[in-house]
Each structure stands twice: as C-alpha cells, then as structure tokens.
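Appendix B. Chain record.
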Amino acid sequence: MQTKSENKIQIANLTELQKSLILAMANTCIDIENLKSTEDAIKKHFQGNFSITTVIKAIKKGSMGAYGVSHKLTPQVIGSWIYQYQKEYSRDRL
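Structure tokens predicted for this chain:
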C-alpha cells in the first residue's frame, strides 16, 4: 500500500495535460484507455497552434458537458472540445 507522500510524488510527476485528462475522466465517468498515447496525440496535433493553457481549459469545459455529452474519451473527442473552445473564445474576443 502506498503512503500519502508516495501518492503526492506520483501526482507531482504527471504533466499538467495528464492531470487535465484525469480530471476529464472523473467528470465524465469514462476511462481513457491509454493516457500517455492520448496526451501524445493531442500534443502532436495541436503543437504550435494552441497553448497548453488553452488546451487544458478546453478539456475542463468539454468534460463538464459544455460541448455535448461524450460516450468515449478519445483524442478525436477531446480535439473537438479544443476546436469548439477556440471558436467560442475567438468569437468572444471580437
């Protein structure tokens, strides 16, 4: 059994994007099959286009149902949240 300090160390070793994806799993009660490959796919697709902060905000908002109900947490669904968030954010700035 792990101690609280060991759990804190494991959480500290997660990237902010991984933490965001874990929060999305908790919000939707849907598991992501492979956290690392999902993170890599999102980074690869959105690298240079969106900041990590924007991606994290989009995942949080999407996982709370702002862009409809999801039945799977795939990179495609999460990517859709990011694009919808960006579209909404851009419209608000005009």
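Further analysis of this model is presented in Appendix C.
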